[in-house]
Amino acid sequence: MSNMSEKDVINCTISHEIHQYVFSCVYILVLLVGVPSNLYSLYHAVLQLKQRNELGVYLLNLTVSDLLYLASLPLWLQYIFQGDDWRHREWLCQLCGFLLYENIYISIGFLCCISLDRYLAVVHPLRFN
């Protein structure tokens, strides 16, 4: 076992500028792609519901979950542009964090429901319509 000197220690710091640019670019891209595509998905979910298709229920809930998350992204962008300084009320910060995790868990849950529904429709086509 060898002793490490101060010369051997690598300076491992994260540049805030890179963090600011990468996250802001990703969030802006997600907003630009996510809002129109989720609104389009919402339209098709409503069409599915009008046809009494159960897939429309899953799609509607998944889309609403995504839209709620997308609604919090401008606040996250402002947070990043202000040097990781939250200038809004604390409850709004907690709400944005809640929307982030809500989106993750609800999306996983509804994708599992859709997968199970499709599995049952393929494996047991006469029992599950």
**Estimated helix fraction:** over 70%
**Strand fraction band?**
under 5%
* SS elements, strand count: 0
Poorly predicted regions are none
Instruction: Provide the number of structural domains.
Output: 1
Structural class of the helices, strands and pairings?
mainly alpha
Largest sheet: none
Rg over CA atoms, rounded to whole Å, is 22 Å
The general outline is elongated
**Kindly state the mean pLDDT as a whole number?**
85
Rounded to the nearest angstrom, the distance between the terminal CA atoms is 67 Å
> Topology as H/E string?
HHH
**How many distinct helices?**
3
Structure description:
One of its GO terms (biological process) is cellular response to pH. Belongs to the G-protein coupled receptor 1 family. It holds the Pfam family 7tm_1. The chain crosses the membrane at residues 21-43, 55-77, 98-121. It comes from Nothobranchius rachovii. By secondary structure, the chain is an all-alpha fold. The protein has one domain. It contains three helices and no strands. It has helices at 16-50, 55-81, 90-123. The longest helix has 35 residues, at 16-50. The chain is elongated, with a radius of gyration of 22 Å.
